[in-house]
Amino acid sequence: MSLLEIRELTVAFDQYERGLRRRVVTALSGMDLSADTGEVVALVGASGAGKSLLAHAVLGLLPPNAREGGEVRYDGAVVARAARRGLAGREIALLPQSVSFLDPLARVGAQVRRAAVLAGVADPAEAAVAALRRRGLGPDVPRRYPHELSGGMARRVLIAMATLGRARLVLADEPTPGLQQDGARAVLAELREIADGGSAVVLITHDLPGALDVADRVVICHEGRTVDAVTPADFRADALSHPYTHALWRALPANGFHTGEED
Ligand SMILES: Nc1ncnc2c1ncn2[C@@H]1O[C@H](COP(=O)(O)OP(=O)(O)OP(=O)(O)O)[C@@H](O)[C@H]1O
Ligand code: NI
């Protein structure tokens, strides 16, 4: 049994039109994903396929109008939605896709320190400064507010926050946009190291070549459901059976063909 096992996860949103009429919008219709200690599992799929929703569901972060079905198992047991929030920080670290996860009203230093406290590190203040320094963010950065950061700097702050503890599971939701190519490559290498050090990593990404480089498995989702899971070694035209995965393969730059499906 893997550290994280998601089975047939479904998510539907209740929406109210003109106040009274209720409409149910299905966003996830059956996502399966597992990730074990030592593994990097990539989750790929077009924009809107439901990747971030899956990550948020694991941490019980979906809004109250979201209805959930299926199972999320962590460390061998089904964990109910409300209890999953308690796993955030020390057990599970989220590297959020959007820099809007930063609190606009709090200084960067205070937010990184709070993440260090949640992660249970010995000296949170020292760990926060060290984590920022490690990302090339100098001594003036802790005093800044999020709006005083560039996109790339904000991304590095989020990476610092998600990696300063030793979470058993890291959910990295598109960790590389806004970073230079070298920086992006370094982040993927670091996620690989985190897995090799004994954590499980779920890497949500639009960078399929990057995913094929670092991941042990690539899970492919399409319109709210997982459709395929392949190892990078099997990501070859002659080994792929699912048509959507095949289309992703053809869309790789090396294979010279564009489907227009991906970003
Ligand atoms: N709070 C919400 N209410 C209603 N629908 C939502 C809500 N949050 C997300 N959705 C819908 O769920 C679907 C999946 O969204 P999600 O953000 O998980 O996609 P994604 O695969 O992460 O896309 P991207 O690659 O662009 O980040 C989208 O159609 C989105 O509009
Ligand atoms: Ni997303």
From TrEMBL:
PROSITE patterns: ABC_TRANSPORTER_1, ABC_TRANSPORTER_2
The protein's enzyme class: translocase
EC number, as in UniProt: 7.2.2.11
Keywords annotated in UniProt: ATP-binding, Cell membrane, Ion transport, Membrane, Nickel, Nickel transport, Nucleotide-binding, Translocase, Transport
Localization: Cell membrane
Gene3D superfamilies: P-loop containing nucleotide triphosphate hydrolases
One Pfam family matching this protein: ABC_tran
Catalytic reactions of this protein: Ni(2+)(out) + ATP + H2O = Ni(2+)(in) + ADP + phosphate + H(+)
Membrane-topology annotation of the record: Peripheral membrane protein
Limits of the ABC transporter domain: 6-248
GO terms, molecular function: ATP binding
InterPro entries for this protein: AAA+_ATPase, ABC_Ni/Peptide_Import, ABC_transporter-like_ATP-bd, ABC_transporter-like_CS, P-loop_NTPase
Main localization, broad class: membrane
Assembly and interaction partners: The complex is composed of two ATP-binding proteins (NikD and NikE), two transmembrane proteins (NikB and NikC) and a solute-binding protein (NikA).
Family: Belongs to the ABC transporter superfamily.
Protein name, UniProt field: Nickel import system ATP-binding protein NikD
Organism: Actinokineospora guangxiensis
